[in-house]
Amino acid sequence: MKLLVAVSFLVASASLSNGFVFHFTPKGLSLSCTTTTSFLNGVKSGTLGTGEGWIDPSAPVNSEESLRLTLEKSLEGSSFQKRLSLLGSTGSIGTQTLEIVDACPDNFVVDALSAGTNAKLMAEQVLKYRPKIASMATAEAAEELKSILSDAGAHMPIIMHGDEGILACSTIDSADTVVTGIVGAAGLKPTIEAIKLKKDIALANKETLISGGPVINPLVKEYGINMLPADSEHSAIFQCLQGVPEGGLRRIILTASGGAFRDLTKDELFQMCRDDPRAVQAKATTHPNWDMGAKITLDSATMMNKGLEVIEAHYLFGASYDDIDVVIHPQSIVHSMVETQDTSCIAQLGWADMRLPLVYSVSWPHRLKMPYKPLDLAEVSQMTFMKPDHEKYPCIRLAYDAGRAGGTMTAVLNAANEMANEMFREDIGLGFLDIPKLIEMTMEAHKADHKTKDITLDDILSCDAWARQYVLEKSETMKAKILV
To answer: Quick check: 5 pLDDT over 80?
Structure first.
């Protein structure tokens, strides 16, 4: 039996097991299972299959209109050109996006760049890409940028700073697509204003949909723009859904690395939290697979990152929370999967390279030739999958609870997690298990003011600020001891 591996990897999903392993050998593929029980049976979050709670997606999928649009754009061929506005140009998303521009100079033009305070790197980018607008986070950084460019006798774009500068970049007339590589709630307003000007969004800012989904999704529909996921899991789902007809999606399966504690049992982790909190802190901020930012690494350890991705998947693809599942896949080769109504399971595979989803978000639906290392399944050797322990990772349950509550609750969840995550990393005495406790306390307190209808951006930002302050205050009562 021959196995064809191309853009997608297809497996039968009806009999997936609690723990299963794909082995790649010169003779082909073999599958071994650790149990015969369905690895999704009995998992409270997801897989209920009710079909209830589906919404209109913000990504261009699951409709006749999106199929026609995808075909129309595909027939343009690879001679297309897109003009980009890049928010967060000096961060990892920004620099990797510019690597894509370098690899495909005929396909992309950079019209605007915004960044934090790294004026030196921004100056290098301005010299190379000659944007019309360059914005820095502060007035001091903007003056430094002017000085560097002036000394170099270089092209001088319009130089701005602060929120006004970010808005100017996101709304520049000439840009077709805005890449939202900035972190936090600061990305909400620029994204909204870009949508109102009918610009496509290459989405790398999680808060846009996790916190702002109730506001963003109606705007996407009203202005008819394309919301294109730029992170690996949601890009994988997006790619798998290309060509799936309306009503064809049955279930979404998000893969997770499992984070720093994936090889410990719940009891082993909890004992380690009691006996050696300093070791827990060190391990929680070290990812077993790759080097990421400190916040995301800790979110991976608590698996809140996967819970947040569940919420984002709901808004992007419209699936009910009952029809979104999480599975731990330590090798991080299968980036996520979809199950269609006939129970076929379609997966997207590749090395863990952030540039791959970025390429697709800015070039969709085209497939550009890129100078990246091809996937070698023989080198991968094997792939394993297992269900997450929801007692070991309570943050997953909290994310599903917030998602099902809807409205402003997801903004509260996100803000509470960010604050608890930051305080744990600051070494002020919070334990690893205090993170989900603080988040749950904040969600419970928000129930009195929970809003599910007629939600505005001000509502989202207000709930974000309240949740952060609430976590800060409650954390004072939870500092049992300072880590030593």
So the answer is: no
